[in-house]
Design a protein that fits this description.
Chain lengths: 357, 256
């Protein structure tokens, strides 16, 4: 098609005027924020944020800090992968944090050891039959919890047509109730070695990266991904085109539930304990990562890569504040401002794009 | 004469007490391009909505390709081979051209249920072919529909209907919101469809366009068919007389 560069009425398409991909903008923001902390570090603390300044440690970069940044965002990042898919279809999931709490409690009950220092496990939930089980059992139990919670979310939204905000708010409260009821508020501890290995060291990071790559490919190359964008973009058009919107929504929320459940496994394994209050506010952090990464709350736009970079921005900001010795109180306030700022930026960008740049 | 593709008998639609469409008898033959004209509220769009199953008719019968049909919705009609370009375009704004063309009927490279891998190159090539066949020029296929002009979007919507080699295309005022050059582009596509022998029902307000494009003109007035005229037997003034009710072939629709 040699004349395909000719538009209607002789319009031509100027490649240089094409908008920069969203992910590049987000990446530039990541670089800018990191550089800002580096500069502030030298000005205020007399130390580097990013680079290694100690003589007794090898290496160019401050690897300890970088590791903490990545490790910090890996677990909530796993949740954010699911939240990204939900938001792209035009929905929202407020239940992820509570699903983490409930799943951690239930899964941990199947991951306990029988004997602690020769004595029976003081935190035992079940009888001897549930002790020293192979690691696959708690993982399967966790995924089951995620499927159940996610599918309930999805079916509520697909069949009763209530707004996702309300459906997942209900699940948020219910699942938190389950996590408190499960052991009457007592923490569940002493997991088997194989369960504890899941969250050891940098393993959570590798799990996060593996899942991110998997869902990047799924969103980009499969029918599932295409339909997520189509539904978020124009649900009526998607339905008219023969996409089974209801089934698709149930699948999307179920996947989000599974990812929350996997995050619960990693988190409880890393902490070697499960508590009823685990995962509180995680849903908002996950949504923030997605939104900072350029996922549009109005649906249809965003990507897994964007969310991963958004998660890194999130981690850099938290770590940067700690580095600058800012109080945790201020951190929360600034976090709130960043979330709102990212949404404002998204709205502004959409208006500008419509106005024709 | 060639075979009858679409036929309606006594097609009627009431919205509560409003008789939007009454006793419409209509026929469309293979290779035929027919225009539906009439004033606002004459029942043109109502007629289209009954045929395509967007609404359920109050009364009457519809035959398509020789058998009587009751479509449950536009999707059902589409499966039978009736492609409709509606006034409000059914496109996903954030997707590019090939994704919109193949929405809901994607080409698959490897079948894995919902996670089937898309044949992206295949869809892109088929899109280029389809656009070329219909004479649609889109500057950049990978551009999201959002970034396109009204005319380009309309062309994508039409190309989508046309490229699935359907048995009947219905366009409801496809150029209503378009500029001069964009209108010309859409009219060219319609001419291409005519050459290819794809039957078409065109709802339009634009008499110049109607005389330019179709073989036969059906005039609606007050929910009834007021006239059914071959193009070469009539002219603009004649059509206007039927639209305004000065003349009528059928007594019920005339101003008495």
């Amino acid at each position: 098609m040699s004349d395909s560069s000719q538009g209607i009425g002789g319009l031509t398409f100027d490649k240089t005027k094409r908008a920069r991909p969203q992910e590049l903008n987000v990446f530039l923001a990541l670089v800018l924020i990191t550089v800002t902390f580096e500069v502030l570090g030298w000005l205020l603390m007399g130390d580097s944020f990013l680079f290694n300044t100690r003589d007794n440690v090898e290496g160019l970069f401050n690897t300890a800090r970088l590791n903490i940044i990545i490790l910090q965002v890996a677990i909530i990042g796993i949740i954010a992968l699911g939240v990204t898919q939900v938001i792209i279809t035009g929905g929202i999931d407020l239940s992820s944090g509570s699903i983490v709490g409930a799943t951690a409690m239930i899964a941990m009950s199947f991951a306990q050891v029988a004997l602690v220092n020769g004595n029976p496990n003081p935190k035992a939930i079940f009888g001897p039959w549930a002790m020293d089980l192979p690691v696959i059992v708690p993982i399967v139990v966790a995924i089951g919890c995620g499927v159940l919670a996610g599918a309930v979310n999805g079916m509520l939204i697909a069949y009763t047509k209530i707004p996702p905000f309300i459906a997942t708010l209900g699940m948020m409260v219910t699942a938190r109730g389950v996590s408190k009821w499960w052991s009457k508020g007592n923490p569940i501890s002493f997991p088997t070695d194989s369960y504890a290995a899941i969250g050891k060291g940098m393993t959570p990071v590798f799990i996060f990266i593996g899942l991110a790559v998997l869902f990047y490919l799924i969103m980009k190359y499969t029918k599932y991904g295409k339909h997520c964008y189509a539904i978020g973009s124009n649900e009526e058009a998607a339905r008219m085109s023969g996409i089974r919107v209801e089934n698709h929504k149930i699948l999307v929320y179920t996947i989000a539930g599974i990812l929350s459940a996997l995050a619960a496994v990693v988190l409880s394994s890393k902490n070697l304990t499960a508590q009823a209050g685990m995962g509180v506010m995680y849903e908002l952090d996950a949504i923030a990562m997605a939104v900072i990464g350029g996922v549009s709350l109005s649906g249809g736009r965003g990507s897994i890569i964007g969310t991963v970079i958004g998660a890194l921005i999130f981690g850099v900001i938290i770590s940067g504040f700690t580095f600058l010795r800012l109080d945790a109180y201020y951190q929360e306030m600034v976090k709130g401002a960043i979330i709102v700022g990212a949404v404002v930026l998204d709205q502004w960008r959409q208006r500008r794009a419509r106005a024709g740049r | 004469m060639s075979e009858v593709i679409l036929k309606t008998e006594g097609l009627t639609k009431y919205y509560g007490g409003v008789h939007a469409l009454e006793d419409a008898d209509f026929e469309l033959r293979a290779d035929e391009h027919v225009a539906i004209v009439g004033d606002n509220g004459a029942g043109k769009s109502t007629f289209v909505r009954q045929i395509t199953g967007v609404e359920t008719r109050t009364r009457g019968k519809v035959w398509f390709l020789g058998s009587e049909v009751h479509f449950d919705g536009p999707l059902d009609a589409r499966k039978s081979g009736i492609e409709t370009v509606f006034q409000n375009l059914a496109l996903a704004d954030d997707l590019d051209v090939p994704s919109n063309l193949f929405l809901g009927r994607e080409k698959i490279l490897l079948n894995l249920g919902p996670f089937s891998i898309l044949d992206r190159r295949g869809m892109r090539n088929a899109t280029m072919e389809g656009l070329q066949r219909t004479g649609v020029k889109i500057p950049n296929l990978d551009n999201a529909i959002r970034n396109m002009s009204g005319g380009q979007r309309q062309c994508v919507a039409i190309a989508r209907s046309a490229s699935f080699a359907s048995k009947l295309i219905i366009m409801d005022e496809p150029t209503a919101a378009l500029g001069v050059q964009e209108t010309a582009q859409v009219e060219n596509i319609i001419k291409t469809l005519k050459e290819q022998g794809v039957p078409l029902i065109l709802v339009s307000h634009n008499l110049r366009q109607v005389f330019d494009l179709v073989d036969r003109i059906v005039v609606f007035r007050r929910g009834r068919i007021a006239a059914n005229l071959l193009k070469h037997e009539t002219d603009g003034n004649d059509i206007v007389s039927y639209i305004t009710g000065v003349k009528s072939q059928f007594a019920e629709a005339a101003d008495i």
